[in-house]
Design goal:
The structure holds two protein chains of two kinds. By secondary structure, chain A is mainly beta. Chain A has no helices and ten strands. The N and C termini of chain A lie far apart (37 Å). Chain B starts with a strand and ends with a strand. Classes of the chains: A mainly beta, B mainly beta.
């Protein structure tokens, strides 16, 4: 079946602009995660959605970052007033539920802020 | 502080040779440990998962070991192939609420002919 898909695959934007990154999880997966992978760094947890529960936003680095998950499926990560340090690969993953279950990752969106 | 440290940072080996990647963690409490393979430009793909009671687990030419007492894990790759060139990421799951998984920075493996 189809895996996790993300769009766009690459995004180049100017400093100060807003960007939206999209994630389509595997159908039926209730858990959805966003991660950031900066050059030479490990994956950094950003936000987690589980079903209809309130999202775990503990990893969001600033209030410029927000995410939504509509209808328990597609998710959008929004970065407002982008800064150069936001440049990274943003990965989305989904799983049946949190923690114990394997997370299936999408290919990521490479964001470059000029 | 929960941390996952991997070594070496990078490794170059000849095709057909074996290699071992290391992962040390300080995560507590401990739920499970996974090794992921991440090809360039792709998302990570799970290779193995081990719980506290498991010492070794194999997936083809990949064999992972876990010593929960010393909080160390290794990933052994046998008879390496060019397609093994990738980043290998060690991930530890904690039972604590909050961040779901703690990721290592990965080891970049290059297999040359």
């Amino acid at each position: 079946g189809a895996g996790v898909s993300q769009s766009p695959s690459n995004k180049v934007t100017e400093k100060g602009k807003d960007v939206e990154l999209r994630c389509d999880p595997i159908s039926g997966h209730t858990a959805l995660y966003w991660y950031r992978q900066s050059l030479g760094q490990g994956l950094e947890f950003l936000i987690y959605f589980q079903g209809n529960s309130a999202p775990d936003k503990s990893g969001l680095p600033s209030d410029r970052f927000s995410a939504e998950r509509t209808g328990g499926s597609v998710s959008t990560l929004t970065i407002q007033r982008t800064q150069q340090e936001d440049s990274a690969v943003y990965l989305c993953a989904s799983s049946w539920r949190r923690g114990e279950n394997e997370q299936f990752f999408g290919p990521g969106t490479r964001l470059t802020v000029l | 502080k929960n941390q996952v440290e991997q070594s070496p940072q990078s490794l170059i080996i000849l095709e057909g040779k074996n290699c071992t990647l290391q992962c040390n963690y300080t995560v507590s409490p401990f739920s499970n440990l996974r090794w992921y393979k991440q090809d360039t430009g792709r998302g990570p793909v799970s290779l193995t998962i081990m719980t506290f009671s498991e010492n070794t687990k194999s997936n083809g030419r990949y064999t992972a070991t876990l010593d929960a007492d010393t909080k160390q894990s290794s990933l052994h790759i046998t008879a390496s192939q060019l397609s093994d060139s990738a980043s290998y990421i060690c991930v530890v799951s904690s039972n604590q609420a909050g961040t779901a998984l703690i990721f290592g920075k990965g080891t970049t493996l290059s297999v040359s002919s």
